[in-house]
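Please decode residue identities from the backbone states below.
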């Protein structure tokens, strides 16, 4: 009887863990249009340095993608490299306020 009681708990614990992970709000989702550069940095942390933190191919892909998307008047972009494939690109206007944000998942 104890074996069966313990056996159903494992999938239940895994399901609850997965649900709680899915329910959390990512830092990216907390960034919204109209926020200042300082507010975004407070949420996401220090942005990546494209010259040091991004490979040449990553920089080229990001530049190409930004040239093909509606950037809503952004004059500067900050980039956050979250993993080897996940990037946050936040565009700012002349007043240093968010006008667009992109979440980019690069394929190999």
């Amino acid at each position: 009887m104890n074996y069966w009681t313990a056996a159903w708990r494992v999938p239940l614990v895994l399901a609850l863990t997965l649900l709680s992970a899915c329910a959390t709000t990512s830092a990216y989702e907390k960034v919204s249009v109209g926020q200042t550069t300082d507010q975004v940095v407070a949420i996401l942390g220090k942005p990546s340095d494209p010259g040091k933190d991004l490979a040449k191919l990553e920089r080229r892909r990001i530049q190409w993608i930004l040239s093909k998307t509606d950037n809503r008047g952004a004059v500067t972009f900050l980039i956050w490299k979250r993993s080897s494939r996940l990037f946050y690109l936040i565009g700012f206007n002349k007043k240093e306020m968010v006008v667009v944000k992109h979440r980019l998942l690069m394929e190999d």
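Observation: The domain at 28-105 is CATH 3.30.1450 (Beta-lactamase Inhibitory Protein; Chain:B, domain 1).
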